[in-house]
Design brief:
Helix content: 10-25%
Shape: globular
Distance between the termini: 36 Å
CATH topology of the largest domain: Rossmann fold
Largest sheet: 7 strands, antiparallel
CATH architecture of the largest domain: 3-Layer(aba) Sandwich
Bound molecules: flavin-adenine dinucleotide, FE2/S2 (inorganic) cluster
Oligomer: single chain
Strand order of the largest sheet: 6-5-9-3-4-8-7
Radius of gyration: 19 Å
Number of domains: 2
């Protein structure tokens, strides 16, 4: 039995929640998927659709999968990718991904044509707790829009509205604007845009927009965010100072994605350290230690109080 198989069997069952319901997401699987579609998305990004074999558990918004390219591949390890959409087609799951080709792995992924094979491990990690009571406020920066498009869709399926805040330096870099507008219009949710230079929407960053809009919304609000770590740290600090619950989807360079390699540490807050120490031997082995959380198993979605934002890089 391989290390990964052993990890799969001993992995803790993760509690992923979808809007309106609370459900346990079954342990991940490794499967061979087929490229169904791959197209340009704008801003140098691509939209990829993978068709999975029957039996793959549907991911929840905020979870990710590991994508491993078929032989011959320029990279040895799989690459983590957030799920941006989930739909069913003739009884099979089709997962959508929004990604930028930034290095050898994602550039090779971008070359794949319909019919090509990609090995998928997932679903992995903790999802956004979308069933939490309150007004959902989704805050996206850059490619962080990917899991939040899926979160907005999940909320819409449960007939819940959200406020969707999308930010970029300038209007040209507002990734996913058209898609967000189309998905949100169907559910009666509202899209708010911020650009640093004021070329579209609110002038200023998306955290200032959040500060501006929050008092106008029905309390309590619950923030679900994804974007560059600098933006997420600012959202977390604002939420902690304002007494608002915020859930941030973090990234880290990853190898296994399952807690085995210990390669994706993020610094825990003092409060989280105390909690993990108190859990003692009861803490799951594939999670981090009292000092460091593993992004892949403790996260990637963390509540603002769980991390030490002064030490997050
Ligand atoms: C949980 C999770 C979800 C992700 N979701 C998405 C997504 O939806 N869309 C998307 O475009 N990307 C996403 N990423 C990032 C994506 O995994 C990396 O861009 C990819 O692994 C780069 O692989 P590569 O071989 O192309 O580049 P490499 O040659 O491995 O690296 C190219 C450059 O990217 C940097 N890099 C590699 N991985 C990361 C990372 N995780 N975070 C920041 N910088 C990194 C490297 O340091 C290097 O500078 C996600 C990462 C994580 C951890
Ligand atoms: S990527 Fe291996 S422990 Fe997180």
């Amino acid at each position: 039995m391989s290390v990964l198989e052993r990890a799969s069997r001993s992995a803790p069952r993760r509690t992923g929640r979808t809007a309106g319901t609370s459900r346990t997401v079954r342990t991940w699987r490794q499967v061979a998927a087929r490229v169904r579609d791959q197209r340009r998305y704008g801003g140098g990004f691509l939209w990829l659709e993978l068709e999975l074999p029957a039996g793959f558990t549907a991911p929840a918004a905020g979870q990710f999968v590991q994508l491993l390219l078929d032989f011959p591949s320029p990279v040895l390890l799989p690459r983590p990718m957030s799920v941006a959409s989930v739909r069913k087609l003739a009884g099979r799951l089709v997962l959508g991904f929004l990604y930028g080709p930034v290095g050898a792995g994602t550039r090779a992924l971008a070359e794949l044509q319909p019919g090509a094979t990609v090995h998928v491990t997932g679903p992995l990690g903790r999802a956004y707790p979308l069933s939490e009571q309150g007004t959902p406020v989704l805050v996206a920066g850059g490619r962080g829009v990917a899991p939040l498009l899926f979160a907005a869709e999940t909320l819409a399926r449960s007939r819940r509205r959200c406020e969707f805040l999308l930010g970029a330096r300038t209007s040209r870099l507002l990734l996913g604007l058209a898609e967000a507008r189309a998905r949100l219009a169907r559910s009666g949710s509202r899209l708010h845009v911020a650009t640093d230079d004021g070329s579209r929407g609110f002038r200023g960053d998306v955290v200032r927009l959040l500060h501006h809009i929050a008092p106008t919304l029905a309390a309590p609000i619950v923030v679900h965010a994804c974007g560059p770590h600098g933006m997420l740290a600012a959202v977390a600090r604002w939420a902690l100072a304002s007494g608002v619950r915020a859930h941030l989807a973090m990234e880290s360079v990853m190898a296994c994605g399952t807690g085995v390699c210990r390669g994706c540490p993020l610094p825990r807050s003092a409060e989280a350290r105390e909690r993990v120490l108190a859990e003692g031997a009861g803490a799951a082995a594939l999670r981090g230690n009292p000092e460091w959380a593993m992004c892949c198993t403790d996260g990637p979605v963390f509540e603002a109080r769980e991390l030490d934002w002064e030490r997050v890089e």
